[in-house]
Structure formats: C-alpha cells, structure tokens
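Contributing: when you submit paired examples, paste them exactly as shown. First protein:
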Amino acid sequence: MTPVPYKSIINGGLKPGKSFTVRGEVKCNPHRIDFNLCHRFGIAFHFKVEFDQNKLVVNTWDVQWGPEEYPAGMPFKACQPFEIYIFCTDHSFNVIVNGVQVHSYKHRFLPLNEIDVFEVLGDVQINHVDA
C-alpha cells in the first residue's frame, strides 16, 4: 500500500504523452479525493471527487481558482475499488475512470514542463501508482 497523501516528482516536468495511473479503493464514509498536477505556484490540473455533493469538479489554481468544470456522472463509490488514468496530450488532460473517459480538460497552465508534482489526497487507499 502507498501512503496518502501521496506526492511524486515529475522529473524534467510534464510532457505530452505522460500518463498517471492510480489503482486503489475509496474509503468507507468518504468526504473527498483530490488528484493534482502542480507547479511551483499553483495547481495546473485539480480533479476533485466530492462525495457529499456526489459530483466531480475540475479546475486550475493560478493566483486564484478558475471556472469549475463538472464532468457528468460519479464513477467513484464508497468502499469500492477504482482505477483512474490521467493522460496529458498537447491540448488537454484526458481522464479515464474504470475504463470510461469521464472528462477532457483543456490546458489552462503553460508551459507544461513547469508542472512537476503529481499528488493524491483524501479518503482513499492507494494500492498502485504509475506516475
């Protein structure tokens, strides 16, 4: 098992073609889970699972939060295993949960190579990370 909060350095910064896979299990009675790709001054990609509100929220923090995006559906369930795959393209982050694409988030922060940390926070048990 991998400790949470989880943080890993992206050597050389993010590049198109880089992906992140997290397999784990949502804790019972969860409040939230965050998957973040960070740079020195903020969060380029913030993917938040809000269990209280039964929704997903995606955003960017760069001096302040930008407009939120709300992917449809809620693929994460309390006490259940999951796999999330985040893939960086030239133009967006594509998010696939349990084999289904849930969102494509257009890059708001550039240059990508300044994004150098991947982190997972919240009510989750991590079994495997490929970052």
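Second protein:
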Amino acid sequence: MSNQSQSDVHVVSPSYWKVTFENAPINLIDLDTVEQLADLVTRIEQDPDLAVVVFQSANPDFFMAHLDLLIDYERAAAMPPGPTGLAPFSDSLLRLSRVPAVTVSAINGRARGAGSEFVLNTDIRFAGPNAILGQPEVGLGAVPGGNPMGRLAELVGRGRAMEIVLGGDDFPAQLAAEYGYVNRVLPEGELDDFVDTFARRIAGFDKAAVSGTKEFVDAATAIPASDYAAALAAFRRTAGRPENADHRRSLFTRGLQQPQGIELDLGKHIAEKA
C-alpha cells in the first residue's frame, strides 16, 4: 500500500469533519483508495462526538472518476474481507451508509461508476453546476459491482434507475437533481459555502438526536448486505470478458483514465464501438 494519503481529514470541530479526496490525475478509485477508505470509515464509526462528515474533492473536474480499470486483480483478490464479511470496497460502502454521523457529498466534477456508488452511499448529495454523475459499467460489458441499482431504485424510482444504469450515460447536475440522483444543485461558486453552512447547522445539534433520527431513515431504506455481495459477484463474472476486450482497448486508446479526452465526456464515448 502507498504511504501517500488520498484523503485529507480536516477536523473543523469535534462534531464536524471535512474530508477532501485527491488521487491525481483524475481521482481514480484504486486499491490504495479502497484500503484507506476502510480505515476512514472505521474512524467515522468510532468517533463518539462526530455528527457530520462532508466529502469533497481537490480536483474541480473529478470528484471520483471511477474504479481504476488497470488494478492488480491478484492483490484485490488477496485483500481480506471487511468487518461485515463483504469484500473491502463493498464493505466500506455498506458501513458508510450506516455510520451514526450524517454524511454529505459536495460534488463538483465527475462521479461515475464506483465514484457514483460512493456518493450514493452517503446520506445527502449536493452538487455544483459542473457535476456529472453516471454508471457506465454496462457500456463496458459489466454489471455494476457496488449495487447502485438498489440505491438508485430507492432514490429515483424503477424506471429512472433503469435509464441510468442500463443507458450508461452521463447525468449533468441539473438533470441529476430533477431525477433525485442528487438533492439539489447550487449556483456557480456557492456549493462550498452552502454545504459548510448546512454541515455546521447539523454539527451544532445534539449528536444523540441526529444519529437517533438517522437510524430510522436508515432502517426504512436499508439494503441487505447480501445484495452488495451479489452485485460484486455479478461484476466479477462479467467484467473483463474477452468479448469486450476490443471496446475496452479502444477506450484506452482514446484517453480512458487520462485527464483529457473521453474521460470528460465518457457517457457519450462508452457507446461508440471501435
């Protein structure tokens, strides 16, 4: 594991943390991200005073791009399961969705694939006008592994969830808000201040009232751990199959996982076959 931390945790107050993600050049979710995220979720779970955590990105163009498609699969397979018994990333998503603190994603730039799955497992999503969300996995021949199907069906309804995950297209901020993928869009330059004011408001409330209220919402919208396990198993069965190798190679040739080129407009390019 790299010693380079990808998340800067700023303790604004005992009840309010601000976590800034940075993994240059485009904030890919790699195996170091997965390991560090597990540790971060544990810290959030165990802090008795923490009431609210804001997640943001240091990169204005990418919140979390998506899973690194060039990860070391042997290293991934050797990683031990997390406390829930699930594989590490699925474990972190499930535990993140259940932490006693309120979690808020302040999304500017792109959050696709595993990045979208991350924000879907936070409690509240606020977006800047340049935010773009999407689940491109089906366009790569894979079932999404973090079970965005379950979260999206709850948030946006069955038909729109189908549109998002099966179409594999990009959802710009305003359309994402219209669908319920994010809570709301803030005007240019206003996202950070809005989210900070909102977080400080929650942080000023009684922790027992905040976490106790959140428990009821969590119970009403809970996704079973078995669904996370099944989605990951489906991803592992379908990702990287030889019949999709030419398309994948073509995407890398056109700049996949690079800061310019198709990553800026991936929803469009994922449907263009070589």
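If you have annotations for the second protein, write them as plain sentences, like these:
The mean pLDDT is 96.
The two ends are 35 Å apart (CA to CA).
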